[in-house]
Amino acid sequence: MSEEHAHDGGTEGVSTTGEEEAGGLVSGDVSRYVNYVLLAALLLLALVAGVQFYTAVSRTITRWVTDDYRSLVTAAFNLAVLLVAAAGVSRQIRRLTN
Fold first, then answer.
1. Contact in structure between 81 and 35 (CB atoms under 8 Å)
2. How many CB atoms lie within 10 A of CB 77?
3. What pLDDT sits at residue 43?
4. What is the pTM of this model?
């Protein structure tokens, strides 16, 4: 059995050198680029939605929460948004580095 066939489980006609690398993207590269595009799209979506949600919640807090508690409620809301965003970005980065 040749060295090439020993590494690929003995399947014949499968070459892992030359054609795949020179002819285009390997499936692992495509998956990696899809993950990068997904991460960028999620970050853009989070930015737009976050700004709109933040302004809506800020108006609601201003209207419904008294001055004494307004900064505390706003800080708690901002912390919750930050933690959700950080969890999503962290998950995508882990997927990209594996």
1. no
2. 16
3. 85
4. 0.48
Chain position carrying tokens 């505390």: 72
Tokens of 25: 């993207």
Residue that the structure tokens 């595009």 belong to: 37
- Chain-centroid distance of CA 12 in Å reads 38
Distance between CA atoms of 94 and 79, rounded to whole angstroms?
A: 22
Rounded Cα gap, residues 42 and 34, in angstroms = 12
DSSP 26: -
- Tell me the one-letter amino acid at 49: A
Please write the tens of the pLDDT for every residue from 58-70. Answer: 899 999 999 999 9
Q: Do residues 42 and 88 lie in contact, with contact meaning Cβ atoms separated by under 8 Å?
A: yes
Query: Using CA atoms, how far apart are residues 55 and 59, in angstroms rounded to an integer?
Result: 6
Specify whether the CB–CB gap between 92 and 39 falls below 8 A: yes
What are 3-28's pLDDT values in tens digits? 545 455 555 555 555 445 555 667 77
- State the amino acid at position 5 in one-letter form: H
